[in-house]
What we know:
Layout: E1 11-17, H1 23-39, E2 44-49, H2 57-66, E3 71-76, H3 83-99, E4 104-107, H4 115-128, E5 143-149, H5 155-172, E6 176-181, H6 189-196, E7 203-208, H7 215-230, E8 235-238, H8 246-264, H9 269-278, H10 390-393, H11 398-410
Parallel strand pairs: 1-2, 1-3, 3-4, 5-6, 5-7, 7-8
Amino acid sequence: MLDLATLPDNAGVIICGHGSRAKIAEEEFASLAAGLRARYPGIKAEYGFLEYSAPNIHMALDKLLEQGVEHIYAVPGMLFAATHAQNDIPSVLTTYQEKHPHLTIEYGKELGLHNEMILAFQQRILEAVGLTEIPEVGSLYDTMLVVVGRGTSVVEANAEAAKLTRIVAENLGFGWAETVYSGVTFPSVGRGLEMAAKLGFKKIVVAPYFLFGGRLIDRIYAYVDKVAGEQPDIEYFKADYLRDQSHVIDTFALRINETISSEEKGGGLMACFKERLARGEIDVHHHHAEFQGEVADPQDDEAHGHEHSHDHGHSHEQGQSHGEGTAHEHSHHDHSHGQTHAHSDHNHSHDHDHSHDHGHSHGHGHHHAPYRHIAHPHGPRTMIDENVCCCFMGQFPQEVVDEERALRADKSEEPGTGTPSCKK
């Protein structure tokens, strides 16, 4: 039975990511492929991005081809199943395979809530409080855990982060646990931390469930510093993000081996993608990342991790459902990076039908689906004028913007910079 340890010379692996303007995220993503090569000497392992970073997926596939690879096993380098993982990446892979019919490309699963990922996250949390193993029961009852998820407009994706929080809180034995989100949904990081401070715990661990660093991680830690400065009687601990932690590399290896096994059984996610394609539920996006490795818009924020449309030069007017019926989601880092969109029976072109009145063009090549809780008192409105993408800002009814600014004025809070995060 084939696996990573026994791959023949004409087989190779590619880890597919979204891409980021943050150099640290690009470098840390590259370390994943390096980690696989270190663990399995001799394997041909490359990495590529959908956009914003080089090499793009097309370039990485070219590199494998140049090494004589004819059988490619691809996996998404993403925490949860989003449209990038479900549709965009397999679209690029399918287009490439059509141009090189002698190739076979199999496609595997996202990292997900595999037990190895839970172990990786728990290790980061334990490190934050100076521990190397799970303490005795009761040792952390005086400590609160706050998990920071990326946040999307898809309920199921947000629920995965909440599920992770519950699992980790019980495994490690925290006194209380809450989930906050870095964008789109509620509660926001800032508001969630403010409320956490009112629960009476004198020690609070803030743990971002993110693969890589970048501006969003910096903003999350900045929120912690701000709240800590306002609550000097509470001790805050900032957990590190995942990066190439050993359990993360373990999970990638497991997902790749699953992909190899799925091919032998005649299944796999690529087969599923092609079946959905044949049924007309999705279409192949000619993603610009197939053709260029440079950042298309130097003003765009880091790998938004958001799920978005890409100005493909066509409109989706087939009434198809992207992502098997899940709601159309764009989770922008502060905005949010992570994780799932689907175009749900939209029957529309990818043009905005509303104006943003920001006095500038966006240049993003994407748009955000309306989020029904946009005006939630503890959600993204708490970041108005501060960390909300200009595209997302356009969803706020003007009365919500005015009301939020008036509330801040009543509290004598200083106004934000007015500069959306995607333009900083």
